[in-house]
């Protein structure tokens, strides 16, 4: 694998086949397996897709296809059983319907007026009465700040599949052994990425939420995660099986070239020229997603070696 001759840095000891770095602060504990650092406080979460754009699971009662990321802050509950888990996901500020071209202003964790009002009207549990169904917690009480300074994703700590299951909708990201960052460093990068999506003005969106059937131009909870993986340079062991990601990457690849090819209703291949402005935008997306894809392939090679 190339790691057989790797020498652990000072302070690293081998325990039951694992190399463990344990500094004075327990929060800086990292587990390195076969040249990888598994970030166990960070959880990548995916709810199954019911209809559009991905795997179909008829036996679920969950909403279709939401992705978000969680950060465990109570180290005595590494199984994710915290009452509230710091978490981040991307939502539309209001329903992004067909008439709106599946596009709306976006907001972090659904923490916006439309969904807060929906909770207050009784369609959720109600603001201030525990965890709302629709909106992230609009107000973080002083006692909640040990969990997060920002609203939680409405799906946090909900139904999902555990990392060691066959389905693997929830998993921990990895760093490669030559990456000097600690788990706390990565957590700060995740927080900074999420905070960059929060506007200082209540009615002004930083980004749109959009769904374009995995076209490279869309930005939703799926691409929020994909871009986070790029910005934090993380490896996700599940993403090579993620239909949303593979279609998103393929779309960027198609539109970055001078020509793309499609078929008409009769099955005839049609050659289309991509405008330069589209190619430039698609190429930027492609380079980012290729890094995410390459990290995942490298991770897969190490795990199966």
Molecular structure report:
The protein has one domain (12-304). The strands form four sheets. A five-stranded antiparallel β-sheet has the order 1-2-3-4-11, with no helix packed on it. 26% of the residues lie in helices and 18% in strands. A hairpin with a 5-residue loop joins strand 13 (259-263) and strand 14. The chain has helices at 113-123, 183-195, 221-231, 243-256, 276-304; strands at 12-15, 18-21, 30-33, 36-38, 42-46, 67-71, 86-88, 90-92, 103-108, 170-171, 174-176, 208-210, 259-263, 269-273.
Write a short abstract of this structure.
By secondary structure, this protein is of the alpha+beta class.
pLDDT < 50 runs, ≥5 residues: 1-31, 50-64, 123-132, 159-168
Mean pLDDT: 75
How many structural domains does the protein architecture include? 1
Assign the structural class, choosing from mainly alpha, mainly beta, alpha/beta, alpha+beta, or little secondary structure: alpha+beta
The percent range for helix content is 25-40%
- Outline: globular
N to C succession of SSEs: EEEEEEEEEHEEHEHHEEH
The count of β-strands is 14
Radius of gyration: 21 Å
Bin the strand percentage. Answer: 15-25%
How far is the N terminus from the C terminus? 7 Å
Number of helices: 5
Strand order of the largest sheet: 1-2-3-4-11
Biggest β-sheet description: 5 strands, antiparallel
């Amino acid at each position: 694998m190339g790691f057989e001759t790797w020498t652990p840095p000072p302070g690293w000891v081998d325990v039951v086949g694992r190399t463990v770095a344990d500094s004075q602060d327990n929060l800086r504990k990292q587990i390195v397996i076969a040249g990888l650092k598994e970030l166990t406080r960070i959880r990548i979460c995916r709810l199954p897709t019911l209809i559009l754009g991905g795997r179909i699971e008829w036996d679920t009662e969950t909403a279709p296809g939401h992705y978000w990321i969680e950060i465990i802050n109570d180290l005595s509950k590494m199984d994710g059983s915290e009452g509230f888990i710091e978490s981040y996901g991307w939502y539309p500020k209001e329903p992004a319907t067909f008439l709106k071209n599946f596009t709306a202003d976006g907001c972090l964790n659904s923490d916006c007026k439309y969904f807060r009002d929906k909770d207050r009207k009784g369609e959720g549990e109600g603001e201030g009465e525990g965890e709302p169904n629709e909106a992230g917690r609009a107000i973080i009480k002083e006692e909640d700040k040990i969990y997060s300074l920002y609203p939680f994703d409405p799906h946090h700590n909900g139904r999902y599949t555990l990392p060691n299951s066959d389905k693997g909708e929830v998993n921990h990201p990895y760093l490669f052994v030559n990456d000097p960052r600690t788990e706390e460093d990565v957590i700060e990068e995740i927080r900074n990425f999420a905070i960059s999506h929060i506007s200082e003005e209540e009615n002004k969106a930083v980004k749109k939420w959009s769904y374009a059937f995995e076209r490279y131009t869309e930005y939703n909870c799926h691409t929020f995660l994909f871009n986070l993986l790029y910005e934090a340079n993380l490896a996700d062991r599940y993403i090579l099986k993620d239909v949303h990601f593979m279609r998103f990457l393929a779309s960027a690849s198609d539109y970055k070239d001078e020509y793309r090819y499609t078929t008409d209703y009769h099955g005839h291949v049609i050659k289309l020229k991509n405008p330069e402005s589209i190619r430039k935008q698609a190429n930027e997306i492609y380079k980012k997603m290729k890094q995410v894809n390459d990290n995942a392939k490298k991770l897969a090679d190490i795990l199966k070696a």
